[in-house]
Design goal:
The complex is a heterodimer. Chain A has 4 helices and 18 strands. Chain A has helices spanning 71-90, 108-111, 122-128, 182-185, and strands at 3-6, 9-13, 25-27, 31-37, 41-47, 53-60, 95-100, 118-119, 130-133, 136-139, 141-142, 160-162, 171-173, 176-181, 188-195, 198-199, 202-203, 222-226. The mean pLDDT of chain A is 92. Chain B has helices spanning 17-31, 51-54, 74-77, 120-125, 138-149, 152-166; strands at residues 36-42, 84-92, 100-107, 114-118, 132-135. The chains are: A alpha+beta, B alpha+beta. Chains A and B meet through β4 and α1 of A and α6 of B.
Chain lengths: 230, 167
Amino acid sequence: MDTISYSKNDYKVGPIAQDTRVKLLINSRLHVELVRDSKYYFICSIENYSDMKFILVGIHLPSKLNARDNDQTVVISDLIHDISEAKSEIKTDSVLIVGDFNANPFEDMILSVNGIHAIPYADIVALKRKRTVYGKQRELYYNPMWNFLGDYQVNNGMTYYYDSNHAVNLYRNIFDQVILSASMVKCFEMKSLSILKNIGEYFFVDSKGHPWSDKFSDHLPIVFSIKEEI
Amino acid sequence: MENLWSAIDTTKILRTPRDILKEQCNYLNEATGGKVIAQVKPYEGKYQSEHVLVGPAWQIRYNNPKFEIKDFDVQSQLGDTTKFVYEFYLASKAMSKYKYRIMFLYYDASLYPIGISLDSSISNEIDQSNREFRVNTEEEFMDILKRILGSNRVASVITNLLSLNED
């Protein structure tokens, strides 16, 4: 299957070079080129007819349950290196990272400067863009998924449920995230961001509100919109 | 005046690690008719993972006793004398922006030992658990290179890139 049609739009499968855990299905009107990939991610250059160009990173990082020592660290290190090279080669600072991080937004691999360096505040990211850490400029990213943590404004917010006997047990996890570079913040439509529990009559959660792994997936999908620059 | 450069033999030109890789590039380019190419190019960016230097849980697990593999820190092992850094990668005629980097390679004027920073999927496949390591001789380099280029990962990428050329 190379293309599918839905709601008057054609979608094509993104280019693949390696056997990767994450796949891309993209509107056929967009020009997409593969830049880097690995078992755990792909990095594509996306262009539309109005010459809007950005880097799309799709990821499915190793699970903490199955990973060997440092697996996640190695993959994140490679990912950051590859994104940096892709930005230089494609000549754009606009980066959108989306997928299953198998980590929460507050974990080091996402929040720390040694990881993706993604913080929960769009205005700070858009204004500062970078910050200096021990003499080196490090790019900031915006992670809007922080808004789904806690229970003040969000009811039952999670994309993954896990009950363990470990010292720390969060129960409700936000493993599936979208993260944006400073240049992409203005294109992101915050109000469109949601965690899908159903599409019409098809419910992705069971009677407890947990991801219905037997029927669909142990993760819930996220949805969001990006405005095109014209 | 007497010529004091008595140890110089200008007829003896050594084959550098880069030369060895370039030979392999030629073999692949010929085999695929230029549709999938391997290249070895000088590299100026970061070529080692930071985790190797800071990771507290880093353990070296290397199953082939033939090689003397140690925790390799380029700053202490090769230090500022490292002058030659290369990336070795696959590219495709059909996907002009794509690059699959097989390894980084770095050495000084003495050629050996050479440092290698290998793609993690390949290192996992060939039981080279320490993806960043050194080899001390040309024989060792040829041996590890044979395992790398003969890996399923490399074969799979080449096959996929060839298939894309057929589209």
